[in-house]
Amino acid sequence: MALMMTDECINCDVCEPECPNGAISQGDSTYVINPDLCTECVGHYETSQCVEVCPVDCIIKDPKHNETEEELRAKYERISNAG
């Protein structure tokens, strides 16, 4: 699954620079995660770096983007090859 921000995001700015895929950006009222770029850090790290640094635990799995580990790895490879 891709990750998503909840409304509890406090715009603390710590997650955006941690994302190796550039999936996190400032939205209208909170940061947002682009599901087309989010691989939950598969291919980069053992754990999702944004989740690790979030002080308010507002980053959850996005139920609208259910993906397996294999699908996340394929997305990582597609993103990596496009760059």
Outline the secondary-structure elements.
Elements lengths: L2 E3 L18 E3 L4 E3 L15 H5 L5 E3 L7 H14 L1
Antiparallel strand pairs: 1-4, 2-3
If you had to describe this structure to a student in words, what would you say it looks like?
- The chain is α+β, with helices and mostly antiparallel strands.
- The chain has a single domain (3-82), classed as 2-Layer Sandwich (Alpha-Beta Plaits), CATH 3.30.70.
- The protein is 23% helix and 14% strand.
- It is built from 2 helices and 4 strands.
- It has helices spanning 49-53, 69-82, and strands at 3-5, 24-26, 31-33, 59-61.
- The strands form 2 sheets. The chain has a two-stranded antiparallel sheet.
- It is globular and about 30 Å long.
- The two termini are 22 Å apart.
- This is Ferredoxin.
Helical residue percent?
10-25%
CATH topology description: Alpha-Beta Plaits
Q: In what order do the strands lie side by side in the largest sheet?
A: 1-4
| CATH architecture grouping | 2-Layer Sandwich
Low-confidence stretches: none
General shape = globular
Question: What is the tally of beta strands?
Answer: 4
CATH class descriptor: Alpha Beta
Strand content: 5-15%
Output the helix-strand order.
Answer: EEEHEH
**Helical region count?**
2
The secondary structure category is alpha+beta
Cofactor: [4Fe-4S] cluster
Keywords: 4Fe-4S, Electron transport, Iron, Iron-sulfur, Metal-binding, Transport
GO molecular function, one term: 4 iron, 4 sulfur cluster binding
Domain 4Fe-4S ferredoxin-type: 1-29, 31-64
